[in-house]
Amino acid sequence: MAGVVEYRITREGVPGLLFDQADVEGAVLASAEASFRDAILRTPSESILVGRRRELEAEVARGLRDRLEASGVTVAVDQVRVVDAHPPREVVPAYRDVSAAVSDVERFRNDAEAFAAEQRWAAKGEAAARRDLADAESARLKAKAEGDLKAF
Predict the structure, then answer these.
(1) Contact 65, 79 (CB under 8 A)
(2) What are the b/e assignments for 53-66, b being 16+ CB within 10 Å?
C-alpha cells in the first residue's frame, strides 16, 4: 500500500525549523508510516481494497495528528490519501476468485429479484384478468336470470 500525506509547517513551527534544524520531514514520514500501519492492522483488507478507503484515510490522518502533536512537531496535516492499495502478490489469484464470487452473488441476487418481480407482476396481471372474466360471467348470468324471470 502506498499513501500520500499533505502537510504544511504552521507559524508556530517556523522558528523551530529555522533555529533548531528539526527534521520535520523525517518526523512526519516516521509518524505517517506508523499511523498507516496502525490503521491498516485494525481494518479488514477487503474494506481497504473495496469500500472503506475514505474512512481509513480519515483514521490515518487522526492518528498522524495525534502522533505529531505528542512529539511536538508543529505541522498541520491537510490531507491523507491512499494512492495504491492491492493485495499481496501471493494472494492475488485467490483475491480475484473471491472478487468473482462476490460479483456472482450480486448478479444471482439481482437476477433472482428481477425474476421475483416479473413473476409478481405476471401473477397480478393474471389475477386481474381472471377477476375481469369472473365479473363478466357474473354479469352475463345475472342478465340471463333477469331475462328468464321476465319471460316467466
Answers:
(1) no
(2) eeebbebbbebbbe
C-alpha cell belonging to residue 9: 509547517
Tell me the pTM: 0.53
User: By mean pLDDT, which of 1-10, 42-51, 89-98 is the weakest?
Assistant: 42-51
Contact predicate 75/9, CB 8 Å: yes
In this structure, are residues 82 and 1 in contact, taking their beta carbons and an 8 Å threshold? yes
Can you list the alpha helix ranges (DSSP code H) found in 1-91? 14-19, 24-41, 45-49, 53-71
73: Cα within 13 Å, side-chain hemisphere: 24
- pLDDT average, residue stretch 63-80: 86
Name the most confidently modeled range: 15-24, 55-64, 141-150. Answer: 141-150
Is residue 90 within 8 Å of 17, Cβ to Cβ? no
User: If you search the block for the grid coordinates 534544524, which residue do you land on?
Assistant: 21
